[in-house]
Amino acid sequence: MATIHISDVDAARDFAAVLAHVRSGAEVIIESGSAPIAVLHAPASPRRTVEECLALLPKDSPATIDEDFAADVEAAIAAHREPLNPPAWVE
User: Fold this and answer.
1) For residue range 44-75, what is the model confidence (pLDDT) as tens digits?
2) Which end of the chain is less congested by CB atoms within 10 angstroms, N or C?
3) How far apart are CA 51 and CA 46, in angstroms?
4) At 28, is the secondary structure helix, strand, or coil?
């Protein structure tokens, strides 16, 4: 992730450009003189824990949940770290 330092005056002058940097994945540090006063970055994607996923299973689920189940799920998640890009209507 790129980090961009910008003065508070420049950020106020062209805030749309600051947001464009954030949307492109950069972290923007807004400074007054040499002191940072704000850090802008995209929010982290919400993620479910394994426990939350297990809680979503229906009571009559045929899934076998043994002592290795959580490790298996975590291994599957780690193997597929590509970003989820849901359609706009999901939000």
Assistant:
1) 878 888 778 778 888 888 777 777 877 887 88
2) C
3) 15
4) strand
